[in-house]
Write a structure and sequence with these properties.
Two copies of one chain form a homodimer. The first copy, chain A, is an alpha/beta fold. The first copy, chain A, is built from twelve helices and 20 strands.
Chain lengths: 421, 421
Amino acid sequence: MRKVIVQKFGGTSVADTEKIKNVAKTVIREKNNGNDVVVVVSAMGHTTDHLVKMAHDINPNPSSREMDMLLSTGECVSIALLTMAIQAQGHKAVSFNASQIGILTENVHSKARIVDIKTEKLKKNLDEGNIIVVAGFQGVTEDGEITTLGRGGSDTSAVALAAALNAERCDIYTDVEGVYTTDPRVVPNASRLDIVSYEEMLELAHAGANVLHPRSVETAKQYSVPLRVRSSFKLDNMGTLIVGVEQMEINKPVTGVAADSSQVRIVVCEVPDTPGEAATLFTCLAKENVSVDMIIQSYARKESKTNDIAFTVTKEDLPKTLEVLEVVKKKLNAGDIKIDEDISKVSIIGAGMIDRPGIASTMFQTLADAGINIKMISTSEIKISCLINKEDDTKAVKALHDVFQLGCDEVAEVKGTLPDV
Amino acid sequence: MRKVIVQKFGGTSVADTEKIKNVAKTVIREKNNGNDVVVVVSAMGHTTDHLVKMAHDINPNPSSREMDMLLSTGECVSIALLTMAIQAQGHKAVSFNASQIGILTENVHSKARIVDIKTEKLKKNLDEGNIIVVAGFQGVTEDGEITTLGRGGSDTSAVALAAALNAERCDIYTDVEGVYTTDPRVVPNASRLDIVSYEEMLELAHAGANVLHPRSVETAKQYSVPLRVRSSFKLDNMGTLIVGVEQMEINKPVTGVAADSSQVRIVVCEVPDTPGEAATLFTCLAKENVSVDMIIQSYARKESKTNDIAFTVTKEDLPKTLEVLEVVKKKLNAGDIKIDEDISKVSIIGAGMIDRPGIASTMFQTLADAGINIKMISTSEIKISCLINKEDDTKAVKALHDVFQLGCDEVAEVKGTLPDV
């Protein structure tokens, strides 16, 4: 029984015809290992940006259906060219867009979720000896409408295909060499992790280490698909394997440190302290599809019987959030709304911190020793996050990386770009 | 009952975002006339050339399946952008690729023929008040394989949609103002024809007046779809209407003059004069999909019992033709093969020449008076073609245009490019 390997190459890996020829070599190398290979590709380099620019030239507010029609073309170009490149090197290959295979999604444009993948056509073509090249980022509804999967879409396509085909592994080729203990651009002696759990990777991703989109990691976790993040350019480097925590031996309490400055803190002052007020606030935000990250409600002030409610949202969602708050503020009879954009969330992540009570206090003490003020704190089983001033975040990451002994002796070779999605 | 108008815009009409906005205006103008509108568009400007170049960088001999996957993306970009442009101007619109509608073709890549078009989705969307924007040039097989229709494909898509929807008219918008009595770049006082029959248009097209691809005219004739060729830029000019000959009043014996220098003459010398030899030759060419145009077989020379067989093929088909001839020559025990590339076929076309015997002799005399040697002659009911030296073709066209009184008093305003397909 042959094993199926799913490979995913991002836009920088297929940015021009020479790079596409190189990707073909990497694909064939895996096929020559005796495996069946399914390849998922993104749009070439800046194709998507170019298409978005044309769309906005024409219509400042294009419909999401037509944006999906437009953007899905980028991947269709890549799959045909990569297939031609594989064929030029003497191997059987065939390309399919999402509609042809049946990568079924919900009927939602611009950020649809995959609900099912038909495997009949894929299996038939693999059995015939073909390397299969699939357009990432796109899906199709039961009615034949073209959808896209949103940020990180191609990673998600690859993982979902690997799950559907019961693949041995899903290799995400990118221009970084794997997952690091922290951003190597900030901490030069950051170590590459050989192995990390889905749970840690999810927290790392949410905490700002955007090697992989959280959705793809969640899907991998759900279907137990081993994921490998590896370099398109250094094929001998095996990158980072991402698996279930039960498959790992845990040595250190903390696996990684991450900073995320994409959020903004909002404080709604003087919310009357009656039951259900916080629920009203966050229900209204949820209805508008605003994801709230950290939330703190201060103790009610006895004299005024009001609370201050602080929370964070992404900068992208700020305008929508303010719109909602204008309405909610009146409804709740709340006070001022304060916005703080110069913040950063610093997190330590590690499956090993469960039942080791000293970790949080070490983190707080380390930040205090570095003279960094903590504005908010949130914790999960395997993560502790502190909101701090943005200007302090590099200092905080370095101090935490040191105190938890995450560095290695070598200095990582760092490329200037992060992988696209 | 609302009428359906199908409009087709070629690549030069949608070459950039500004032009796409203009096309949207033209589309809306027709919608505002109270008609249901279905628009067919080609790929933007040089998109197809760019895609072909990338393909050839990667694979000098790309598979036709993958070329169809690749090239079909060009039209998918145009339809999304045009739809956004129509929406920006406040009208309901929706785009569909060929797979979504079900423009079913034979299972042949790079030059498939349309076998059926599903109209359910189109009618439903028209009933909902949408302007429908459809990707030209592409189709889909019963198995979901993407095909393309070859040269002139978008014209054919438009006509086939008009036939399927029983449309009032199919308007082909282009950068010429209509069909002329001859190429206005050659004869400045060429007249625009207000009306021309399908049959004449077919002969004009085959004779080198490449305003419309013959296949689209054949389809229009088959389903009696009135076609109008008109300018994208001069909307008040009604262009040329193409209808059945029975709907026309015929005044002149000759409607137009055309020259075609895309062919090459081949002479196979000394083919033994035994039955079936010519059949062998042309069957072998047909098997390789080479279309032969003019054919002349000389009288058998008594002394040698051999014939010379002369015929013309397009320059594009020359390499394939020579390959076939190398094999056939041995099989037939024929003599040398001579090739003449410096030829041109000059034709006069007119439904009115039926039963007017003087027309052919006027043509031959006119060429003789101009000192032009005729190398081959072929005739149909409504066309007489003479093969001449290429260097004489402008002179020939001018002389014939004059003698059949096709000119007008004005000098046509001519754009330098011919419409793409």
